[in-house]
Amino acid sequence: xxxxxxxxxxxxxxxxxxxxxxxxxxxxxxxxxxxxxxxxxxxxxxxxxxxxxxxxxxxxxxxxxxxxxxxxxxxxxxxxxxxxxxxxxxxxxxxxxxxxxxxxxxxxxxxxxxxxxxxxxxxxxxxxxxxxxxxxxxxxxxxxxxxxxxxxxxxxxxxxxxxxxxxxxxx
Length: 171
Fold this sequence. Notes:
Order of helices and strands: HHHEEEEHHEEEE
Low-confidence stretches: 9-24
CATH architecture of the largest domain: 2-Layer Sandwich
Helix content: 10-25%
């Protein structure tokens, strides 16, 4: 009979280095005051850096199936001021017909999924987000790059389930 060289404690020690990789999706707790380079070293490269009136903003979408998009605001010297998770009901309510596509991107960040509409009518941007139901937020854009409609839909992985069926996550 073969005996394993690893005890349960050995497996635990082998897995500990992987924990920071899982937790690095969110900004570090001590973010305020970090330099831009320190933030990028901890969170990875941003999707985009936007110049703002007073400094800049780094955008970190965690997609396509990630349920968070983090904006990290930097002062003019490049030091982190705060971080904000932007895929929220409050921000979704700010999306209105006629709004420019670029304004949606500035508010919610890069969509997780982009689908073209038939007959070249535009596209649909879909955002997974944290919620208790199997749904995502979707923005329909016209060829003129303006919001035609916005609301909630059922992602493909939920097909066959009711949209309002609660999601039960196992520990």
